[in-house]
User: What shape does this take?
Amino acid sequence: MIKVHHLFQEQTLALSLEEAWAFFATPKNLDEITPPELSFETVYCAEGEMFEGQIITYRVGIFPGVKVPWVTEIRSVKPRESFIDEQRAGPYRLWHHRHVFTPIPGGVGMTDEVHYALPFWPFGELAHGILVKPKLERIFAFRREELEKRFGRVEGQGC
Assistant: This one.
């Protein structure tokens, strides 16, 4: 059995669409907006801007002292509009993360939509509410804060 979970976040950033794309289209920048307690590191990534079919290898701490490899593939790249990263190997049974960028007055609107499933059913589902969901919410809250510190927030927008 597989249960697919959903995480959605949107925010506004005070930078141009081109600047937002340049930052997010550089996979190594993910290291900078991931909480330090995850000991997240990019192990392998081709230099330059991401491209469709690109394979990226990371190491991520899932528990203190326990790091696992995480391999993703960049898919469906629409420059300055959206891209998807999908897990090919790693801690999830399914990971599909769509990033969307929309120009707005004074900046850019950005959404993250993640569909994910956990391995080891039913034990993974037991861990979801206690460990996984709260951890993902902290990761995306940290990301939101770091991006707002770095780029600023567009005032008067609903996100």
Q: What stands out?
A: The longest strand covers residues 66-78. The chain has a mean pLDDT of 92. Strands lie at 5-13, 41-44, 55-63, 66-78, 82-89, 94-104, 107-117.
